[in-house]
């Protein structure tokens, strides 16, 4: 039989009025969301789940209470919990993400590393649209998407060098992207031995390289410290803003 917990509802402060007051305090007294959950309720549930280093998923994020709860718990117990918030409504940036930004700004512990990335999913880039050159993402948009997806780290557009294909450095890789939003380019471009030899020395880390295809075997990939990733047909254009 599983562990039993006493009811948290009887005589508690876990009510919508409390949640509404907490949110209004962050938004300078404005009531920006109806019936938000109280932060302490989510913190209580996270503590019941145990551990201080997990990943917390909230697929219906609403006003972003879960993000605030995770940040405050980490701040109080030096935890390393992470959160993933999903919200399809048009307030995802103006309320959900904005709440997280404001919480980060008011947390009292400067030693904690608090940051998050806001990613907006756009049109799917599928085979039929690729062949028609329809809705191809820009170089920067695709670079942002694959860098963040592959590394989980923040992306800096200022690091992009389209001449060499370099798009950024992560803790493990120098990351490269061979891509242009042009069908002829995509059909004719591949990672070849000449391309591998022309890559910059970089930081000396292993190279993670994205391209439409490759004409190199595993021996030459290893020789040039390259881990190859073929650009998939089903890629989502992503616009990422970091705070």
State the main characteristics:
single chain, 243 residues, alpha/beta, 2 domains, four-stranded mixed beta sheet, two-stranded parallel sheet, 8 strands, 35% helix, disordered C terminus
Tell me the layout of helices and strands:
Blueprint: H1 16-26, H2 39-49, E1 55-58, H3 65-77, E2 82-85, H4 92-106, E3 117-125, H5 127-131, H6 139-151, E4 166-169, E5 173-177, H7 183-188, H8 193-198, E6 206-211, H9 218-223, E7 226-230, E8 235-242
Parallel strand pairs: 1-2, 5-6, 6-7
Antiparallel strand pairs: 3-8, 4-5
Helix pairs in contact: 2-3, 3-4
Please describe what this structure looks like.
The chain is α/β, with parallel strands linked by helices. Helix content is 35%, strand content 19%. The chain has nine helices and eight strands. The protein has helices at residues 16-26, 39-49, 65-77, 92-106, 127-131, 139-151, 183-188, 193-198, 218-223, and strands at residues 55-58, 82-85, 117-125, 166-169, 173-177, 206-211, 226-230, 235-242. The protein has a four-stranded mixed β-sheet. A two-stranded parallel ribbon has the order 1-2. Strands 3-8 form a two-stranded antiparallel ribbon. Helix 2 packs across helix 3 and helix 3 runs parallel beside helix 4 (92-106).
**Mean pLDDT across all amino acids:** 84
Strand content: 15-25%
Largest sheet: spatial strand order:
4-5-6-7
Low-confidence stretches: 233-243
Distance, first to last CA = 44 Å
Number of strands: 8
Order of helices and strands: HHEHEHEHHEEHHEHEE
